[in-house]
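Morning run. Coffee first, then this:
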Amino acid sequence: MNGYEKIVNIDLEIHKVANTADWERYDAALPIISLRLFQKNLGAWGGRETYLGKSADGFIKTNYWFVLESCVEKAREQIEGIIKNFNLGGFTRLIVGDAVPSEHDFKKELEEAESLEWVWDRD
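And here it is:
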């Protein structure tokens, strides 16, 4: 074990019942969430996935962020506040994954990052 802090995946899913205005608010909230997590050294945007096939529970797309395990509760509070401010609660779902080991010192990299362009990509 290398001793680096574990990483947690946080997903914000959107349901197929969302109308055009809902989608606009959802899309507008995404960079705000990413910026807030970056500014507070909590985590970074990880990506976006569209579900292939039919979802059993109706959720069709997700955006996700990688968050340091020690920052999960703070990150969740930040994201929930943005969900509330953008009135996204009726058609989105926030999912917090399990902590997974990391082979990299993301905490140090996040603290030293100077721009939002920094991402958690590896060679």
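Strands lie at 7-15, 43-50, 59-68, 92-96. Good start to the day.
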